[in-house]
Amino acid sequence: MLNVVAVNGRLSRDPWINEEKGFGYLDVAVQRNFKNKKTGRYDSDFLNFLIRGKTLDFAKKYLKTGSCVDVVGSVRSKIDKDKKSITYLVANSVEFAAVPSNTSAGKNNQQTPQQAPAKSQPAKQAAPSDNDVYDDDEDLPF
Q: Residue 131's pLDDT is what?
């Protein structure tokens, strides 16, 4: 079975963080992919994600209202003490999302290297030649 939620949106407020208990919440505004027939505009949904661990540290350090993010997580549910079912979203990973450069929001919300950690790129390896020696005991990726 598959339980994955993947959204792209903007934070509708600064992350709410409870450092004492080690968790927090991200409120992500997600634009629907169709227009409202009455208004002719795109409506938005506001999703609340539970964050903790490294995701909490990242949010605390780098995210703020208006940040464009990609969130991948899962749907969870539990029964509270009143025997009511509660469904919530848990963020497993949060990353900065690309912001189109032709939008005014993108011009005002671009992250600089001082604001966000750069992702490290793996070193490029030279193409193997016929003279290279291969170790038969090497793990294969398949």
A: 43
Contact 69, 51 (CB under 8 A): no
The phi, psi pair for 73, rounded to 5°, reads -160, -150
Q: Which among 58, 70, 65, 71 has a CA at the least distance from the CA of 105?
A: 65
Q: What pTM value is reported for the model?
A: 0.66
Rg (CA), the chain: 21
As a three-state string, the secondary structure of the chain is CCCCEEEEEEECCCCEEECCCCEEEEEEEEEEEEECCCCCCEEEEEEEEEEEHHHHHHHHHHCCCCCEEEEEEEEEEEECCCCCEEEEEEEEEEEECCCCCCCHHHHHCCCCCCCCCCCCCCCCCCCCCCCCCCCCCCCCCC
Query: Do the beta carbons of residue 55 and residue 73 sit within 8 Å?
Result: no
